[in-house]
Amino acid sequence: MRVRTNSRRKSKSGNGWYLLYILGRTMQVTGLITTLVAATAFFGTRDTVAMLRTMLAGVLVFLPGWWLVHRAGQSQR
Q1: CB atoms inside a 10 Å sphere around CB 10
Q2: 58-68 burial code (b ≥16 CB/10 A, e <16)
Q3: Is residue 38 exposed (0-12), middle (13-18) or buried (19+ Cβ within 10 Å)?
Q4: Sequence ranges of the domains in the chain
Q5: Euclidean distance between CA atoms 35 and 17, whole angstroms
Q6: Among candidates 60, 67, 56, which has minimal Cα distance to 24?
Q7: CA distances from 23 to 19, 53, 59, 75 (A)
C-alpha cells in the first residue's frame, strides 16, 4: 500500500479563491470608473482639489482590488 507524503489538505471552501477574485474585480472596476468619472466630470473646471480627491478615492479602491485578484490567482494554482 502506498502513502502519499506530499498530499495537501483540501480547504473546506473550494470556491474561496473565486469569491476573492470576484470581489477584487468588482473593486477594480469600481475604482477605475470612479477615477474616469472624476477626470471627465471635473475637466475644465476650477475644482482641481475635488478632482484629485475623487481620483485618489478611486485609486484607493482599485489597489486593494488588484491585490485581491493577484492573491486569488496565486491561491488557485
Answers
A1: 7
A2: beebbeebeeb
A3: buried
A4: 16-76
A5: 27
A6: 67
A7: 6, 23, 16, 15
The residue with greater pLDDT, 62 or 20, is: 62
Write out pLDDT tens, residues 36-75. 999 999 888 888 899 999 999 999 999 999 999 998 888 7
| Rounded Cα gap, residues 10 and 13, in angstroms | 8
Query: Which segments of 1-77 does DSSP mark as H helices, in order?
Result: 16-41, 48-76
Closest CA to 55 of 44, 69, 68, 40: 40
Residue keyed to cell 491585490: 67
